[in-house]
Amino acid sequence: AGTIKKEKMSAESVAMYRLKLKEAIQVGYTILKDGGTSLDAVEKTINVLEDSPLFNAGRGAVLTYEGVNEHDASIMDGKTLNAGASAGTTTVKNPINLARAIMENSPHVMLSGPGAETFAQEQELEIVEPDYFFTENKKKALERVQASEKNKTASFYDSEIKDSKFGTVGCAALDKNGNLAAGTSTGGMTNKRWGRIGDSPIIGAGTYANNATCAVSSTGWGEFFIRAMVAHDISALMEYKGLSLKEAAQLVVQKKLPELGGDGGIIAVDNQGNMVMEFNTSGMFRATMNDKGELYVEMFKD
Ligand code: ASP
After folding, report:
1. Does the global pTM surpass 0.70?
2. Cα 155 to ligand 1 centre (Å)
């Protein structure tokens, strides 16, 4: 989600994003169609996006203040309410796979930094040199933010953040057995420092799934998503207040979040298969595929 305007994007760039979203969702759809689990669909769909330099996750992650990449990811199983999350890793090629391994093969929910990397090695996940994640456009983005930060006030810096694209990737899925799952993977925010962790690996903020309600994945200015507990709040509004997914998502994304000062969006599916993609920015790269295989891909508001 972010400042994504038709007039600012070339036709080639639009086509590239559309193609990648289509490729990713097709992977998840095929898993679900063949009777696979929503967890597998979420993980493998996110892998496609992580392996692409187009998004702020995996290969295309944004740079920290020091010019390196630090990845956050999380996944949640709506059937069992099990969850796994990793924060601040620098060498794990697919952080969503690490989040899932943490959920399934460790007694913990969240691991961070070097410890998470040791666990990833023990799990024989793919490890890469940090420069695998280096992309020229993310370097330019860091230079832009740091230049504007130099002699400006905090409020100017805030508007710089607001003006940028977020680009975290996520997926929410419902399988044939009625099980929901959601996952999120990100490089965080450009110029982040001091080991900053965003909402993406925080269960309840960046990711939440519960078979009783819905599965949600968030993208946006993480500090606000943590404070508003966006993903869980949507689920809670459905569970405790009887709101529909659409009503709950609108309330949180269009009212609660902007009132705090945050922007971004969510993708979600409920336990009946209703899909909602709500954002309060000018655009959000997004796609859905229903049980008939009908594809919807969009980037801009209208
Ligand atoms: N939510 C992410 C974070 O704050 C950024 C994003 O959505 O791209 O780390």
Report:
1. yes
2. 19
Q: Which of 184, 186, 175 is nearest to 39 (CA)?
A: 175
Joined together, the tokens standing for residue 38 give 């929503």
In the reported structure, the alpha carbon of residue 238 is separated from the centroid of ligand 1 by a whole-number distance in angstroms of 24
CA 153 to ligand 1 center in whole angstroms:
22
Say whether 30 is catalytic: no
Give the binding-site residues of ligand 1, using a 6 Å CB cut-off.
Answer: 56, 166-168, 186, 188-189, 198-200, 219-220, 222, 225, 264
Q: Measured in whole angstroms, how far is the alpha carbon of residue 50 from the centre of its chain?
A: 10
pLDDT digits (tens, 9 = 90+) for 98-141: 999 999 999 999 999 999 999 999 999 999 998 999 989 899 98
Interatomic CA distance for residues 139 and 249, integer angstroms: 34
Distance, CA of 89 to CA of 91 (rounded, Å) = 6
Percentage of the chain surpassing pLDDT 90? 87
**C-beta separation of 35 from 178 below 8 A:** no
pLDDT (mean) for 201-224: 98
> What is the maximum span of the chain, computed from C-alpha positions, in angstroms?
56
Phi, psi of 52 (to 5 degrees): -95, 140
